[in-house]
């Protein structure tokens, strides 16, 4: 009994002393159009920033292809469904991700990672952070980043001529999330990527179940965006069907009202987070990133 009485204060003391902090979940990053996994002023910068702020975290910046040049070219010309399959294979083969990971996609990388969440539940994606991702697609192509601008003219002409033709859909990434509100039937029928992951041709219950397994789905919209048309696509809104002037928020879309992806249920459960940041597409400060994004990774 004396030994037991002596042990009680010791147990109480141990209860007050916290053990080692749990390691942060790994982070998977997917870059946007015209970028690459390891560009020192974009994804390389983000990776180092996260590693500095969260010591010990494992960060995987996705590379599609055998070189940085190929990775950049694939962001324009490699079938998105093939890219998603490649990424799912990479994630499944990485032993450091098997307990689960957070994902952060930039621009088109945001919607591509959502496809990973819906199609590839193992290893499990814990939370998805979409920074400027166009989840209802685009209907306009104002400009391309950096040195890729010359490609924009060609891409724009190609999209105007026939975004929903089989050859363009198969070989031009941006056509695969082109959403023409004036040709909704063509979009639903012929879009080989976005119409599928947005459940436009029927309900894939597995997609819905897998997306709803996320703890958080964070969507960042750039309030002065001149690159994404319409910018509200970054919050899962889009043009009202049949015209290209008036936009509606996610909550007024049929996707939400019919709850084809489970977004309505996720919204009511507090799993959807809508963040706005001043600035043009992908323009944000380190201070904003620290205060608004890092808390979702820790």
TrEMBL record:
It catalyses: S-hexadecanoyl-L-cysteinyl-[protein] + H2O = L-cysteinyl-[protein] + hexadecanoate + H(+); S-hexadecanoyl-N-acetylcysteamine + H2O = N-acetylcysteamine + hexadecanoate + H(+); hexadecanoyl-CoA + H2O = hexadecanoate + CoA + H(+); S-hexadecanoyl-N-acetylcysteine methyl ester + H2O = N-acetylcysteine methyl ester + hexadecanoate + H(+). The keyword Hydrolase applies. SUPFAM superfamilies: alpha/beta-Hydrolases. GO terms for cellular component: endoplasmic reticulum; extracellular region; Golgi apparatus; lysosome. The keyword DNA-binding does not apply. Residues 1-23 form the signal peptide. Gene3D superfamilies: alpha/beta hydrolase. Pfam families: Palm_thioest. It is an enzyme of class 3 (hydrolase). Its EC number is 3.1.2.2, 3.1.2.22. One of its GO terms (biological process) is receptor-mediated endocytosis. It comes from the Eukaryota. One of its GO terms (molecular function) is palmitoyl-(protein) hydrolase activity. Keywords: Disulfide bond, Endoplasmic reticulum, Glycoprotein, Golgi apparatus, Hydrolase, Lysosome, Secreted, Signal. It is found in: Endoplasmic reticulum; Golgi apparatus; Lysosome; Secreted. Belongs to the palmitoyl-protein thioesterase family. This is Palmitoyl-protein thioesterase 1.
